[in-house]
Write a structure and sequence with these properties.
The chain folds into 2 domains: about 80 residues, no CATH class; about 70 residues, no CATH class. Helix content is about 40%, strand content about 10%. It contains 6 helices and 5 strands, in the order E-H-H-E-H-H-E-E-E-H-H. Helix 2 packs across helix 3. The longest helix is centred in the C-terminal third of the chain and has 20 residues. The two termini are about 35 Å apart.
């Protein structure tokens, strides 16, 4: 039996990751042998990789009688799986023990926090936070601006932020042709 997903992923104004995951589950349940998908429209770019990963995930889940959860989170691309954050009071306690002028950047589900021995800032806008920092060196200013933008983006998207680490983008974090490592 053959099924085409291109019309569903390309004619729906929605990211294709979730559509492909749900459809791969239906395809596995119905025993469909062949599936056609396309990547013509911009929001369906990567649909072939998504469907391949979803197909493997759903096949494994179906044949092992388990839910397709906790096996591989490579299809969780925009948001992140659950993660722990520091409470503001924990960060303020951490700041009291800092003895240098290096900035530490943290984010929770609502705020970005920046502190060193002299400053503690909380905000949601990278430019406003940056304005409260003392960064006379252009290289350090560039670094702080980049990290603050990444932290703000993480808060907006519900992603985990770790200073000096890239944000996690699920299967998109792997290079094209590279297998996604199960988490």
């Amino acid at each position: 039996m053959l099924m085409g997903l291109g019309n569903l992923t390309e004619l729906t104004d929605a990211d294709s990751v979730g559509i492909n995951a749900v459809m791969a589950g239906i395809i596995a349940e119905l025993g469909i042998d062949y599936v056609l998908t396309t990547e013509v429209i911009s929001w369906a770019r990567g649909a072939v990789r998504e469907l391949d990963l979803a197909r493997k995930l759903m096949h494994y889940a179906l044949h092992n009688g388990v839910l397709p959860k906790g096996l591989d989170d490579g299809l969780v691309a925009l948001k992140d799986p659950p993660f722990e954050t520091y409470e503001e009071e924990e960060l303020r306690d951490m700041q009291r023990r800092v003895r240098d002028k290096n900035y530490r950047i943290f984010a929770d589900r609502e705020w970005v926090f920046v502190f060193n021995r002299d400053t503690f800032l909380r905000g949601k806008d990278a430019q406003e936070l940056f304005a409260g920092l003392d960064a006379p060196d252009p290289g350090h200013a560039f670094y702080l601006g980049r990290e603050l933008e990444r932290a703000v983006l993480a808060v907006r998207l519900g992603k985990k932020y770790t200073q000096e680490s890239p944000l996690r983008w699920g299967y998109l974090s792997a290079a094209v042709g590279e297998e996604v490592e199960p988490s």
